[in-house]
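seq as requested:
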Amino acid sequence: MNDALKVYNLRFLQSDLRNYFSQEVVTYKEHQSFWIKNYRHYHIGVIGVEFAGYYGYVNNDFRYAVIPKYRGRGIGKKLVADALRNYHIKTIRVIKTNLSSIKCLKKCGFKVNSIREFNGIKFVELENSLGRKY
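struct tokens:
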């Protein structure tokens, strides 16, 4: 299975759709088109040789996810830390109910800047107030 398909399967995991701004499922063909243009901005996390998650930073929009069986083991924090080494990320927006991501980002030095709403969806805007790079 290639990286595009791994990211697609994790990104559109039914149990996690509520954690994303865009809850609309795109076709794999649409995802492939996006992937071809932006794959260099995605990084894959592995444990041994097994896919554990990913992060991407495209058009000042940071996104990351960890597969369910590896959640709670610090993988998200490692992905965020790697992203901060590779990109200058100042602000991240997270759905207000995605408490695990908010907690992870706080551990990485992000602070809640504001709570906003867009299209009826409440989100937390977190700021890298330390300008932290790992």
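Residues 110 and 128 are 4 Å apart (CA to CA).
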